[in-house]
Structures are given as C-alpha cells and as structure tokens.
C-alpha cells in the first residue's frame, strides 16, 4: 500500500512538473508570436516607405493576426495553470482573464474580417 501511494505521488509530481514546463512553453510561444508580429509589421512599414506606398491598414491586419495567435497561446497557458492548481481564486482569475482575452480575440477577428471585406480580399476563417 505504501509503495502504491509513493508511486502515485511520484507520478503526480512528474505530471505537475511537465505541465509547468508546457505552460512556460505556451507563454513563450505567445511572446514569440507578438515579437514576430512586430517584426512583420515593421518590415511592412519599411518596405512600404521605401516604395513610397505605406499601407497602414494592411500592416495593422498583419499585426492583428499575430496578436490573435498570441492571445490563444496565452489563454491555453492560463487554462493549463488552473488545471495544475485548481484553487477557487485561480479559477476566478482564469474566468476574468479568459473573458478579456476571448473578447479581445473576438474583436480582432471581427476587425480582420471586416477589413478584408472592405479591401475586397476574401476573409480567412
């Protein structure tokens, strides 16, 4: 019986540590998505200024796509954190954060679709 409890505790500890590493990876991917979006937006601006035709709306859409992806990674990280330590305070924090990030993602996606329709290009799903 003692050996079974020890094995269960060890397996639980391994799972918690693996989940913490996965959470860190998701947060890092979110940050990298933002950095990549910033680089893509700056590159668009530089190319446009050299050509004499800066397209701010297209650049905003480029950045918005990366931000939406980053929000998804961050939300996944928050969900995983709550699964690791399901305390009521953490669950409440996750609910607030999830609501804010979901609303931001919704409006970013809606703006992308409206902008694509306005520009005459097909909106991606």
Report what the structure shows.
The protein is 89% helix and 0% strand. The mean pLDDT is 83. It is built from three helices and no strands. The chain is mostly helical and 125 residues long. The chain has helices at 2-51, 56-84, 88-119.
% residues in beta strands: under 5%
Overall pLDDT: 83
Query: From N to C, what is the helix and strand string?
Result: HHH
From the alpha carbons, calculate the radius of gyration and give it in angstroms: 20 Å
Report on the biggest sheet.
none
* Low-pLDDT segments, ≥5 res: none
Structure summary, number of beta strands: 0
Helix content: over 70%
Number of helices: 3
What is the CA-CA span between the terminal residues? 54 Å
Strand-pairing-aware structural class: mainly alpha
Shape: elongated
Descriptive terms for the model:
elongated; mainly alpha; 89% helix; 125 residues; 3 helices
What would you say about this model in short?
With 125 residues, the protein is an all-alpha fold.
List the SSEs and their pairings.
Elements: H1 2-51, H2 56-84, H3 88-119
Helix pairs in contact: 1-2, 2-3
């Amino acid at each position: 019986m003692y050996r079974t409890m020890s094995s269960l505790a060890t397996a639980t500890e391994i799972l918690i540590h693996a989940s913490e590493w996965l959470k860190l990876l998701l947060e890092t991917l979110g940050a990298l998505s933002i950095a990549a979006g910033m680089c893509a937006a700056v590159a668009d601006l530089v190319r446009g200024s050299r050509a004499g035709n800066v397209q701010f709306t297209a650049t905003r859409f480029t950045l918005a796509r990366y931000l939406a992806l980053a929000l998804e990674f961050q939300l996944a990280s928050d969900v995983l954190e709550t699964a690791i330590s399901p305390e009521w305070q953490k669950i409440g924090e996750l609910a607030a954060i999830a609501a804010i990030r979901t609303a931001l993602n919704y409006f970013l996606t809606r703006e992308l679709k409206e902008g694509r329709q306005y520009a005459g290009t097909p909106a991606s799903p």
